[in-house]
Design brief:
- The structure is a single chain.
- With 438 residues, the protein is an alpha/beta fold.
- It has 3 domains: 148 residues, HAD superfamily/HAD-like (Rossmann fold), CATH 3.40.50.1000; 83 residues; 188 residues, Rossmann fold (3-Layer(aba) Sandwich), CATH 3.40.50.
- The chain has 15 helices and 15 strands.
- Strands 11-10-9-12-13-15-14 form a 7-stranded mixed beta sheet. Strands 5-4-1-6-7-8 form a 6-stranded parallel beta sheet, sandwiched between helices. Strands 2-3 form a two-stranded antiparallel ribbon.
- The radius of gyration is 28 Å and the shape is elongated.
- It starts with a strand and ends with a strand.
- The mean pLDDT is 87.
C-alpha cells in the first residue's frame, strides 16, 4: 500500500538549469558588472570545475555551505574572491533559476491526481540555498506537499538514510497510524541518491528523461523506471492492489493477448532436447507456450483456471488450424492423469504456498516419462515486488530436481517489460529445464 510519494526536485519536478551553456550570458553580465572580464571558454571551464568541486564537498561534508559553489567558481576563474561578491552571485543564481524554472511534463496533473487519491506528497532534495522552495512556490506546486525537506536545513544529504528517517519522523509526528517505509515511493532521476531510499524499505522509481549517476556513490536497482511522471498513477494503483493475483478472466477478455503470443524463451530452448510428444502446460493462461508447441506438432493440453484465457486459446488454435486440448483446473487441487514427454509450468509457483509448490513439482515429476522434460520458471526472492504467496530462495528450484539431469538452470533479473500499457517492471526469475533419467 503506497500512502506517501516522495519526490526529488531538480530534473524530477522542475527542469534544472544548471548547465554552463544556459547561464553563459548571465554569468558574463554578472562578471562584467563587477569588472571581471573572461572569455566564454574560461567561464564554461570554471563552471565545470565548480560543479565538480561542489559535488565532492557536498558528499564529504553532508551539510552544504552557502556560497561554496560561487567560491570555487570565482577561484577557478582566477578572480579575487570576496564574501560580498559570492553572496551577490548566489542571489543572482537564485533569481536566474526562478525566472527560468519550468515544470517537468505532466508535473501538475500528476500531483493533483495523487492528491485526489489521498496520497501524502513530499519533497526531499539536496540543496545549498532556498531556491528550490521558492521555485516550487512560483510554479504553484508547493501547496501540494506535506513536507519539503532541503538538505542544507536538515544537516544531512540525500543518499544518507538519515534524511529519509527524518522525513518519516516529521510525517508521523502526533499520528496514531504511522506511515511505514514500505508504504513510501521515492521518485527521482539519480540512480545513487534516490535509490538509496530502498535501503530502509521504500519503493523507488527512476525518471529516465535526465538520468543522473554519481560514480562516487553506491547505486541500487530501482523497482521501476518511467519516462514520464504521468506513469506514476499506474504504479501507485498497482502497488495498492490488495494482491498481486490479477483477475485473469478480466484481463483475458480483451481481443489482444495480454502477455502476447511470443513463447517464453525457456520453452524455445527446450526444443533443442525434444522434438515430439505429449505436452502438459500447467497454468498457461491464454496459451502463449501451448500454442507455440502446438504449432510445432506437439500433442498439447493446456490447463488454467481462467475460462476467458482457455476460450481465447481455443479460438486462436481453431483459426490457425492447430490441435489444442484445454481444461479448466484449480491449481491447488490439481490431479494429473497419464504421463507426458514435456510438462511446462511457467510463472505459477509464486502464487502457491511452499507446501503446495513442492506438491505440484512432485506431481509433475511423477507424470513425466523416462527421458522426458520439465520446464519451469518462477519468481525468486530477488523479485522487486514481494507481495506474492511465496518466492523461491537461491537454488531452491534446482534442489526440487536434485535427482534429475539439469539441462539448464538460471537465476536472474529479467529486462524491464510492461503488459497492455501498464507500468514497466521487472522480475527476479529462476528457470530450469530438467530431464527425468528414471
Amino acid at each position: 500500500m503506497i500512502k506517501c510519494v516522495i519526490f526529488d526536485f531538480g530534473d524530477t519536478l522542475v527542469r534544472s538549469l544548471g548547465g554552463g551553456n544556459e547561464y553563459l550570458n548571465e554569468y558574463k553580465k554578472f562578471l562584467k558588472k563587477h569588472k571581471l572580464n573572461f572569455s566564454d571558454v574560461e567561464i564554461l571551464q570554471a563552471h565545470s570545475v565548480a560543479i565538480h568541486g561542489w559535488g565532492k564537498f557536498h558528499n564529504k561534508h553532508r551539510a552544504p555551505v552557502r556560497n561554496y559553489f560561487e567560491k570555487v567558481f570565482l577561484t577557478a576563474l582566477g578572480a579575487k574572491f570576496t564574501p560580498r561578491v559570492a553572496k551577490l552571485m548566489n542571489e543572482y543564481y537564485i533569481n536566474c533559476r526562478l525566472n527560468k524554472s519550468v515544470l517537468m511534463p505532466n508535473t501538475l496533473a500528476m500531483l493533483k491526481a495523487l492528491k485526489n487519491k489521498n496520497v501524502s506528497l513530499c519533497v526531499v532534495t539536496n540543496s545549498s540555498d532556498d531556491s528550490n522552495r521558492l521555485i516550487a512556490k512560483k510554479n504553484g506546486i508547493y501547496k501540494y506537499f506535506d513536507e519539503f525537506l532541503m538538505s542544507h536545513e536538515e544537516g544531512t544529504i540525500k543518499s544518507e538514510l538519515k534524511i529519509f528517517h527524518l522525513l518519516l519522523d516529521k510525517l508521523n509526528k502526533n499520528k496514531k497510524i504511522k506511515i511505514l517505509p514500505s508504504e513510501c515511493l521515492m521518485v527521482g532521476n539519480n540512480l545513487n541518491e534516490d535509490t538509496a531510499a530502498s535501503q530502509i524499505g521504500m519503493k523507488t522509481v527512476i525518471l529516465t528523461t535526465k538520468l543522473a549517476v554519481n560514480k562516487n556513490l553506491q547505486s541500487f536497482e530501482p523497482d521501476y523506471y518511467i519516462d514520464d511522471l504521468s506513469e506514476l498513477g499506474k504504479i501507485v494503483e498497482k502497488e495498492n492492489s490488495l494482491s498481486p493475483v490479477v483477475d485473469c478472466d478480466l484481463i483475458y477478455k480483451n481481443k489482444e493477448f495480454y502477455y502476447g503470443l511470443t513463447p517464453n524463451q525457456i520453452v524455445v530452448d527446450a526444443l533443442h532436447h525434444i522434438r515430439t510428444g505429449k505436452v502438459l502446460d500447467i497454468g498457461g493462461g491464454e496459451g502463449r507456450d501451448a500454442l507455440f508447441l502446438a504449432g510445432k506438432a506437439f500433442d498439447v493440453t493446456l490447463l488454467d483456471k481462467s475460462v476467458e484465457g482457455l476460450k481465447k486459446a481455443r479460438r486462436y488454435a481453431k483459426n490457425s488450424n492447430l490441435k489444442l486440448k484445454t481444461k479448466m483446473i484449480e491449481i491447488d487441487n490439481l490431479k494429473i492423469s497419464g504421463k507426458y514427454d514435456l510438462i511446462v509450468c511457467n510463472n505459477v509457483l509464486q502464487f502457491l504456498t511452499p507446501k503446495n509448490r513442492t506438491g505440484l513439482i512432485q506431481k509433475m515429476k511423477a507424470h513425466t516419462v523416462k527421458n522426458g522434460l520439465n520446464v519451469v520458471s518462477a519468481f525468486t526472492v530477488k523479485n522487486p515486488n514481494k507481495k506474492f504467496e511465496s518466492l523461491l530462495k537461491k537454488n531452491e528450484l534446482k534442489k526440487l530436481y536434485a535427482h534429475w539431469e539439469i539441462i539448464k538452470y538460471d537465476e536472474y533479473l529479467c529486462p524491464f517489460e510492461s503488459h497492455a500499457g501498464g507500468p514497466r517492471h521487472r522480475h527476479g526469475m529462476a528457470q530450469i529445464i530438467a530431464k527425468n533419467l528414471n
